[in-house]
Amino acid sequence: MKTSSHFVSASAAPQATHADRSKTRLVVIAAALGTVFEWFDFYLYGALAVFFSALFFPPGNETAAFLASLAAFGAGFAVRPLGALLFGSLGDRIGRKKSFLITMIIMGIATVVVGLLPTYAQVGIWAPILLVTMRLAQGLAVGGEYGGAATYVAEHAPHGQRGRATSWLQTTATFGFLLSLLVILGCRMAVGEEAFKQWGWRIPFLTSVVLLAVSVWIRMTLEESPVFEKMKSEGLVSKQPIREAFGNWANLKRVLITLFGITTGMTVVWYTAQFYALFFMQSALQVDYKTSYMIFAVGLVLGTPLIVLFGALSDKIGRKPIMIAGMVLGALTLMPSFHALAKFTNPALTQFSAATPITIRGGSDCTFSLFAKPATDCDKARNFFSRNGLSYAFEKTEVGTAVVTTIGQTMLKGFDEVQFKATLTNAGFDPKVNSESVNFAGAVAIVAWLLALVGMVYGPMAAFMVEMFPASIRSTSLSLPYHVGVGILGGFLPFAASALVIYTGNMFAGLWYPVAIAAATALIGIFIVPETKDYDVH
């Protein structure tokens, strides 16, 4: 894509002064702090998904309840494109600052309400309905937050420093995730495990009252974007940003390039590196919450600065090569990284799986619905192994054939959970992870590497998207492709990956979802994504 009339080259861009740089630092700090708090609210649910499966969904099928909790998590992402259209257009019509003040208030209120919700045991089916409603409100708010904040920071940043300035905003999701883990860990340790399961889980959500007040105060101190003020004074503010953004083929083409050439691949790398890796460690590898949280906390602290590093580097060598490299490396290394994570955190499980192959042979009754309670012996056997983080091979036999499960050299007919557990125990399986056997340094190194991938794909992306679109419809234009990619492909990644694991019986099968999408996006991006670092957003 060549520079269009919407863009000018670096030679025509205004040069930064010392006062400009000081003002930019203030804007970045204020915008980033407010966004950290908003991501903290949003990620609390993701970190507590295991608890919500037991609290808010019908009992009787632990696997189905867990998948339902992940689907509810994904529901918050699914409505993000709608939030992007609603609040993105508001940002282009009434101002960047006003728009992300509104989204912050909605997010804060919805999060506090989650902390007050009754459970399934108290109100029945109303519990998941109310929970999903609050998730939808959170999704709408986050859908409008990112585009407004990214546009706001980039329009304040001096030319030649947009990658570095906006990369600080890119770290806020990770810092919000880290803050949510630390708050949850502190609460669980303070009130005890049993109390936390009963009522202590509400505390992190209720703390959002304080965070909301602080965040609103921070955002109120900011001035409006100079680019928006200039457009307003010259009467150039768009009256119909949605129509202008998507009803014009030249701009719609930029939207499609951004979606299919960058955001889809970025999304799966980002969420696999953070959310799915934590789910995988806790559910498949059976690592206790203290150990898993500490591994991620240290890994995030070590890896997050790389987001800023790659953002700043993109000011020098360009946005495109760094983002494409991150997607390619993600496609190549996600699978071996998770294998290494398994070896470092639960070596006994890795050794057991290698030494004791498990095979399930069954006929037409092996259907295994994701949400229905397992009814047949075959379904119960598959659910049993998935619940315990054990991979198995499945072989389809003739119709009407009874299910036969082989654990090592032992053959078991039908399904008897007591007998299955006894056989696994005799074969040397221990569902509990010995904390002394965890290679903490190795696990942290893997998490840090995953964050390096995030840094490559995510660090330069905000600057890239701001530079792709004209100022009058910028917030609307960039918000939609970002949140379609993040919302549809990213939000349902834990659910889709977990479903793949259950259907195939392979605990690593879920990784084919992000690997395939990252590879496809990188291939598309090589040919159609332009380099934007020399475009002037003014």
TrEMBL record:
<feature type="transmembrane region" description="Helical">
    <location>
        <begin position="440"/>
        <end position="459"/>
    </location>
</feature>
<feature type="transmembrane region" description="Helical">
    <location>
        <begin position="26"/>
        <end position="57"/>
    </location>
</feature>
<feature type="transmembrane region" description="Helical">
    <location>
        <begin position="203"/>
        <end position="222"/>
    </location>
</feature>
<feature type="transmembrane region" description="Helical">
    <location>
        <begin position="322"/>
        <end position="342"/>
    </location>
</feature>
<protein>
    <submittedName>
        <fullName>Major facilitator superfamily MFS_1</fullName>
    </submittedName>
</protein>
<feature type="transmembrane region" description="Helical">
    <location>
        <begin position="480"/>
        <end position="505"/>
    </location>
</feature>
<dbReference type="InterPro" id="IPR005828">
    <property type="entry name" value="MFS_sugar_transport-like"/>
</dbReference>
<dbReference type="InterPro" id="IPR020846">
    <property type="entry name" value="MFS_dom"/>
</dbReference>
<dbReference type="GO" id="GO:0022857">
    <property type="term" value="F:transmembrane transporter activity"/>
</dbReference>
<dbReference type="GO" id="GO:0005886">
    <property type="term" value="C:plasma membrane"/>
</dbReference>
<feature type="transmembrane region" description="Helical">
    <location>
        <begin position="293"/>
        <end position="313"/>
    </location>
</feature>
<keyword id="KW-1133">Transmembrane helix</keyword>
<feature type="domain" description="Major facilitator superfamily (MFS) profile">
    <location>
        <begin position="27"/>
        <end position="533"/>
    </location>
</feature>
<feature type="transmembrane region" description="Helical">
    <location>
        <begin position="255"/>
        <end position="273"/>
    </location>
</feature>
<dbReference type="InterPro" id="IPR036259">
    <property type="entry name" value="MFS_trans_sf"/>
</dbReference>
<keyword id="KW-0614">Plasmid</keyword>
<feature type="transmembrane region" description="Helical">
    <location>
        <begin position="63"/>
        <end position="87"/>
    </location>
</feature>
<keyword id="KW-0813">Transport</keyword>
<feature type="transmembrane region" description="Helical">
    <location>
        <begin position="99"/>
        <end position="119"/>
    </location>
</feature>
<feature type="transmembrane region" description="Helical">
    <location>
        <begin position="511"/>
        <end position="529"/>
    </location>
</feature>
<feature type="transmembrane region" description="Helical">
    <location>
        <begin position="168"/>
        <end position="191"/>
    </location>
</feature>
<keyword id="KW-1003">Cell membrane</keyword>
<dbReference type="Pfam" id="PF00083">
    <property type="entry name" value="Sugar_tr"/>
</dbReference>
<keyword id="KW-0812">Transmembrane</keyword>
<keyword id="KW-0472">Membrane</keyword>
